[in-house]
Design brief:
374 residues, Neuraminidase, 0% helix, 5-stranded antiparallel beta sheet, mainly beta
Length: 374
């Protein structure tokens, strides 16, 4: 173990990013070795992370703060300019994401829980970063998802590289929302980058559905990513006591919740819904029984780990690992590896650096990274 000394500095919004940075080498499947490095600790629940360049990560903490991590100095810069959030239960400041074409001064996108008359709603917003400030914070869509519940906010953001973004909204713990297209709860939403509704959205001309909806029948998606090579939108969502799902998200499709599920009731060991398959409902690509409780999802196309090329990687909260799913050319899940189980950490957010290193956050308040051992 190699120890580094970090000096704690507090000056306006700038605070130290670490007390101690650790390195360890571990073996993965196939006896390949990687190095795990602790970058910073002492944070809250880091919900979302995104690279703003080679050496800066912007990240959100669920209690409401947004910060920059300088990977050279390990300093943290707390940003100002973000609105108050309704931080309760599973809600608060949620995801942060930037398009692949991001350059300094461009828009940064966020989802968060906004208080609306004592109820929580998921909102999509964007802002620009200048130094230690967020400028021009603008809510692009305050969803129709208001409830007094404090669970199942979901909420991850993805871009298709064609001028659109997608983001997820959980069912808010109210099951009928999954099959009700007059609410945004339990859906994936598709907008243009300025927040307008694309003319080719599947429900634009359907008076019985909200026009922003791309797909429905979801319980609680906490991972969403777009594979540009194969033009596939992937999502991973929580099931109840089993039945976490990975799906390819297609326009206008029904993903079944709560009519179709592989999970069981929390109150008694009986299945949820009417079965595991139903006409008009999309089948999952992969189902987890028991639940791993997914916290994030990425499609790996970096150069640092050739064996991971074209794989899906998900952070697992309950079963505490990084879940690597190998896909074939048709998008079928053919193999799985559970990495970093010995860390025994709830792994929340994932991000890939320009050189292909994998960064991950833990609910214990750390940001760490995986790099090749050599």
């Amino acid at each position: 173990m190699i120890k580094y000394i970090c000096v704690s500095i507090v000056f306006f919004f700038v605070i130290s990013g670490c007390n101690q940075s650790n390195q360890q080498t571990i073996a993965l499947a196939g006896k390949s070795k990687v190095q795990i490095e602790k970058i910073t600790e002492g944070l809250g629940v880091v919900w979302g992370m995104a690279f703003l360049g080679d050496d800066e990560i912007i990240f959100t903490e669920r209690q409401g703060s947004i910060s920059i991590l300088d990977l050279n100095s390990k300093a943290l810069i707390r940003l100002s300019g973000n609105p108050p959030v309704r931080a309760a239960g599973q809600g608060g400041m949620l995801d942060v994401a930037v398009p692949q074409s991001y350059k300094p001064g461009n828009w940064i996108y966020f989802t968060y829980v906004k208080d609306q008359g004592g109820k929580g709603v998921t909102a999509l917003a964007r802002a620009q970063r200048s130094g230690d400030q967020l400028l021009e914070w603008t809510d692009l869509l305050v969803t129709q998802s208001a409830t007094t519940t404090s669970r199942h906010f979901g909420s991850r953001i993805a871009f298709d590289g064609k001028g659109h973004l997608f983001f997820s909204v959980g069912d808010r713990g109210y099951r009928p929302n999954g099959q009700d297209n007059t609410t945004h709860a339990g859906t994936v939403i598709r907008l243009t980058l300025d927040g307008s509704i694309p003319a080719d959205n599947p429900y634009v001309n359907d008076s019985r559905s909200l026009p922003e909806i791309w797909s429905y029948g979801h319980r609680n998606i906490q991972g969403i990513v777009y594979d540009g090579e194969h033009e596939r939108l992937w999502a991973i969502e929580h099931g109840p006591r089993g039945g976490d799902e990975i799906n390819v998200i297609l326009p206008g499709r029904n993903y079944g919740w709560p009519l179709v599920s592989y999970g069981k009731e929390y109150s008694r060991p009986v299945p949820v819904g009417e079965g595991t398959k139903m006409a008009g409902v999309e089948d999952a690509v992969k189902v987890y029984i028991p639940s791993i409780a997914p916290g994030s999802l990425i499609y790996y196309d970096g150069a640092a780990f050739p064996d991971w090329q074209g794989n899906l990687l998900a952070g697992a909260l309950k079963l505490r690992h990084i879940n690597r799913v190998e896909l074939n050319s048709a998008g079928v899940a053919v193999a799985e590896e559970r990495m970093l189980e010995d860390l025994k950490e709830r792994i929340r957010a994932l991000a890939v650096s320009p050189e292909g290193w994998l960064y991950f956050s833990t609910d214990s308040g750390m940001i760490q990274r995986i790099i090749p051992a050599d």
